[in-house]
Specification:
Elements (H helix, E strand, L loop, with lengths): L1 H17 L4 H6 L5 H28 L2 H17 L7 H27 L7 H29 L2 H22 L14 E2 L1 H30 L4 H29 L2 H17 L6 H33 L2 H29 L3 H27 L6 E2 L2
Antiparallel strand pairs: 1-2
Length: 383
Amino acid sequence: MLYSASLVLFTVTLGIGIISPILPILVENMGVGGILIGLILSSFSISRLLFLPLFGTLSDKYSKRIIILLGLSLYSVIAFLYTAVKDPFHLIIVRFLHGMSSAMAVPVIFALVASITPPGEEGKFMGILNRSIFFGMAFGPFVGGLLTDIIDESFAFVFMSLLSLISLLIAAVTIPEVRLKKKSHMRRAVNRRVLAAMIYRILNSIGRGSIMTFLPIYCYFIGFDYTQIGLLIFLNLIVSGIIQPYAGIFSDRRGVILPIVASNFASALALHMIPYSKEFTSLIALNILLGVFSAFSIPAVSSIIAVEGKGSGNIGGLMGYFSASKSLGRALGPIIAGILYDFGGGGVTGIHFAFSGAAFFSLMAALIFSVIIRKPEREIEIE
């Protein structure tokens, strides 16, 4: 089932990735300011933030398989609506609905796999699932850039819808229902490890949100075409995807603190250097490095949730809250970066402010995580 789930995740995220180099520039060409750019791009994550805990909890109570299939069905329909949107406010609505359908599928697949992961291999299994997502997100921008340069933007959105439909068919055929035994003392609690993971995910995602939002715009400003922009994002994600299963094994053996803290300090430096780089080769190098650094943090922090979720008996609920923490960061990230972009006067100078802010949040993520996870244990009830 691990590899069936991985195939579904790859297919659906390939569709998402196709529009990632197109959407920020499309919004910029609508003539809106930095804050509205951030709001449009954040509406997907805002929707996920609202719906992820709900669907994660429902998947624990009812059927994970049914929720996954419903989410993928909606996903394929809503993806097609991008082709009809011309107004920025209508685009916000479509992005919001798109995020809702995503909340029904991707994190519930993670919860389904995490619930059957052998003890001590959580980092490895989460790394394999994340590899599928990163591969999909890696090939997506490159394919999206090529489709836009060769045909047009509308065809890229149609292709995303078709890929979403394919992922639905794969899931319907290959993903079974998994019935877990109910724990006699099932409780929903957030201990310090879960709290550290969620706060880390919020802060880290704020910083990462600037990459997908303002890296394409920065590259557009300095004269790169869509294919080059897609290639940069491709290299970042493909490198991260290749390394993640091995990074997950590393965190299983050596613990989660070292890979998370060290990778974020290195990421902060790379993020700060991006707007100082105007050559394509230097931006390639920085994006590859960012891919390597993210590969060591993501399986490690995901394994914390997998372990704690299995222990408390509410893996779907915790995965929902964990994914929501990422969505909160991804929702705030473009907005904060947009404010910094406007504060810097827009253009390349505004890009400097946006990426400096991203570097700051990457540092804060590492520092706060290391402080919280070392504090004495205590549990915080969330229900």
